[in-house]
């Protein structure tokens, strides 16, 4: 019996992936509203309860970074939980019109469209919520949003009737690896925030994260590019050109995060030995210029990974930062008073 090529059951899928595609704008809006409610009513009070003074003593930018890590962990855990079965099933033998479970009116395509909208809402939240996002992080997030939305509606374009289904599945695999690769970095940053003085533990965690990022990026490249190559004759010219370029961009974003994690681990090792941590490059040419300008204005430097997992790196300071820290003490105490009052209301 001849071996069937990958996604053979989807190669002649001419229909739109789901009947709810016309309502994707509404679904995306609902996802964004739910993330706002989650952030405002649950994550911010929870951050005070869990991290206590380690959170209250942070400047507003790093407080936002901590909330973003919590939102990312919650959203990506949800995506991994609800997306694993339909993604694996659609890659194996199921088509978009197959019921999600036997006898259900909900189709595979319906579930995958909702999952894609949650994925997009997660990155929209980060772009709007964070005060600092690196250039490569911006490109990664914007690219992921545009690609995911384009893959959903590609079936409406007659010129893409032959590759709309397999392009949507390829984007699902991409997104699944992206969520899997960036889940543990966010979790590592929450551990870093919970016990900032545990330098030895933080160094080990950060090195493990850096190594797993390399492994996951390598596996992702092998899987995605193998699948892309096996379907070469089914792609239109535009996708043949755009897909490798976008994959290189996403891989670079993840590997940029590896460099930052490794640098943070080295800093934690030096802190554990009682050495002074000297600031070093983590952002690239444009990011370094902007960071130096912020330090000159009396603001703390904050490193970032390329993929958008913000690294709230604790760096060495100078006399200017020392004066700024004394001014911040007053603001920190005021924030603590407000936060404690807010926490009292929440507990009641």
TrEMBL record:
Segment Disordered: which positions? 298-330
- Is Transmembrane helix found in the keyword set? yes
User: What transmembrane ranges does the database entry give?
Assistant: 20-43, 70-91, 111-129, 141-158, 164-183
Supply the alphabetized keyword list: Membrane, Transmembrane, Transmembrane helix
What domain of life? Eukaryota
Q: What is this protein called?
A: Uncharacterized protein
């Amino acid at each position: 019996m001849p071996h069937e090529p990958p996604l053979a059951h989807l190669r002649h899928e001419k229909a739109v992936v789901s009947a709810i595609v016309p309502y994707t704008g509404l679904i995306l809006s609902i996802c964004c509203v739910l993330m706002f409610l989650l952030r405002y009513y649950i994550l911010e009070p929870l951050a005070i309860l869990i991290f206590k003074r380690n959170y209250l003593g942070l400047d507003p930018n790093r407080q936002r970074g901590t909330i973003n890590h919590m939102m990312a962990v919650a959203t990506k855990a949800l995506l991994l939980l609800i997306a694993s079965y339909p993604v694996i099933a659609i890659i194996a033998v199921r088509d978009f019109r197959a019921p999600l479970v036997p006898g259900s009116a909900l189709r595979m395509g319906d579930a995958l469209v909702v999952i894609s909208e949650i994925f997009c809402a997660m990155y929209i939240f980060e772009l709007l919520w964070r005060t600092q996002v690196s250039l490569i992080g911006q490109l990664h997030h914007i690219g992921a949003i545009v690609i995911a939305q384009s893959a959903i509606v590609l079936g409406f374009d007659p010129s893409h009737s032959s590759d709309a289904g397999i392009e949507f599945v390829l984007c699902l695999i991409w997104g699944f690896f992206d969520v899997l690769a960036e889940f543990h970095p966010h979790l590592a940053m929450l551990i870093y925030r919970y016990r900032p003085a545990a330098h030895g533990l933080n160094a080990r965690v950060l090195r493990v994260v850096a190594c797993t990022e390399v492994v996951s990026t390598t596996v992702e490249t092998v899987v995605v590019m193998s699948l892309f190559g096996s379907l070469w004759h089914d792609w239109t010219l535009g996708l043949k050109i755009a897909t490798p370029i976008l994959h290189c961009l996403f891989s670079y974003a993840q590997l940029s995060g590896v460099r930052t994690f490794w640098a943070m681990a080295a800093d934690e090792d030096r802190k554990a030995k009682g050495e002074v941590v000297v600031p070093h490059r983590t952002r690239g040419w444009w990011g370094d210029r902007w960071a130096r300008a912020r330090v000159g204005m009396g603001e703390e430097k904050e490193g970032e990974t390329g993929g958008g997992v913000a690294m709230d790196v604790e760096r060495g300071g100078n006399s200017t930062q020392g004066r700024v820290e004394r001014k911040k003490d007053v603001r920190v105490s005021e924030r603590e008073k407000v936060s404690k009052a807010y926490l009292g209301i929440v507990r009641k």
